[in-house]
Amino acid sequence: MDKVVRTPAEAVSDIRSGATVAVGGFGLNGIPSILIAALLEQGARDLSVVSNNCGVDDWGLGLLLSAGRIARMTSSYVGENKEFERQYLFGELEVELVPQGTLAERLRAGGSGIPAFFTPAGVGTSVADGGMPLRHAADGSVAVASQPKEVREFDGQDYVLEHGITTDFALVRASVGDRHGNLVYDQATRNFNPLAAMAGRITIAEVERLVEPGEIPPEQIHTPGVFVQRVVVLTPDQAADKRIERRTTREA
Known about the structure:
three-stranded antiparallel β-sheet, Glutaconate Coenzyme A-transferase, globular
């Protein structure tokens, strides 16, 4: 039952090239930055990553992207990452853009054993009708486009069929975790982390503070340990190493 592994490198050592990986976080908030750095060092390539966005150019998933390790992204937001935009527009990266709420539900559904569901989000757009560019050619033309999805009417309203997402691995970051893999996320870090944790067949969590089993009240657990296979305990310096994607202040 003790799921703690010694190092981030050990935790990601079996993520193979070509694997699918769900990654928690929103912007730079709550991203598993230490596990991402370990995966960069490990060297796996041609990864298919499912995450709300792809970090920034020099932090988070942006590091893997800049190193050419990511072949496909399933995301809802390109964000501040200029390299993400460049690779997508010049045909170096395949990108499936998904409405943000739909992406969240696809991860939750996959983790719950639900293969597919109907949603009104995207009806009447290229999300449902197809034709959305998945990959561009080097000259900017569309090399691969999305296919139409099933649309069905319920009670007079149209809904589009979306499939649940499961991945080979998931990387998440929690504020508190115990040796059994039970996790708690602090405030806004409870974003895509619980959903990514559910979707991974092997879920690896980096935790800022480790406690013993039983110390977290059951009603305060956000991700039950049944979803988590490995726990990495961060050093104080690693836990404190966080970035703000865009700092906005006003003059004094």
